[in-house]
Specification:
By secondary structure, the chain is mainly α. It is 41% helix and 2% strand. The radius of gyration is 19 Å and the shape is globular.
Length: 173
């Protein structure tokens, strides 16, 4: 009987201790950032959390930096290798964060999407927002400017409670 009580107490304790961990990543991605990635990629746009795209997508992006959405974003070999390793190791298909897994699972395996805004899960999460609030909004302009509405975007936080669309206020779907 004493053994059963000890096992029950340990099991209950471990279960209770895991609650904050399970709840804490509900709307988040890994907040770890490679300084080289943040410096190189973040100089033109937000350094998107690696968990937004699967490894194959990051690889395709990095292999075509000479035409990175219309710009030449080529990197020196060392920087490219460091950034590739970081993005690969933290990509949505390797992440333990639930939100990253949702992004990854929504992409058909036979597709390699390079625009985060083309990902089915992203579209699902943003489908109720009237587009005039985005494209006609000089402070937003496009859904790829996550940081315009998500104050925690640069830290990998996209909590629905923290959405504030400039000129419109808090968004609540």
């Amino acid at each position: 009987m004493k053994y059963i009580s000890i096992v029950s107490a340990v099991t209950l304790s471990l279960g209770l201790l895991s609650i904050p961990v399970v709840w804490s990543d509900s709307e988040r991605f890994s907040s770890s950032f490679n300084s080289n990635y943040k410096e190189e990629c973040g100089s033109c746009h937000i350094a998107f959390p690696a968990g937004l795209l699967p490894e194959r997508s990051w690889s395709k992006i990095l292999n075509n930096l000479d035409d990175h959405f219309g710009d030449n974003a080529e990197l020196d070999e060392d920087s490219l290798k460091q950034i590739n390793n970081f993005l690969s190791n933290n990509s949505s298909d390797k992440s333990s964060y639930r939100k990253a897994s949702k992004f990854s699972r929504s992409i058909p395996r036979n597709k390699t999407l390079i625009r985060i805004t083309d990902i089915p899960y992203f579209k699902h999460e943003h489908d109720e927002i009237p587009m005039q609030m985005i494209v006609n909004n000089p402070k937003v302009k496009t859904l790829s400017r996550c940081e315009a509405c998500h104050s925690g975007a640069e830290k990998g936080r996209f909590d629905e409670d923290d959405i504030n669309i400039p000129g419109y206020g808090r968004w609540d779907d």
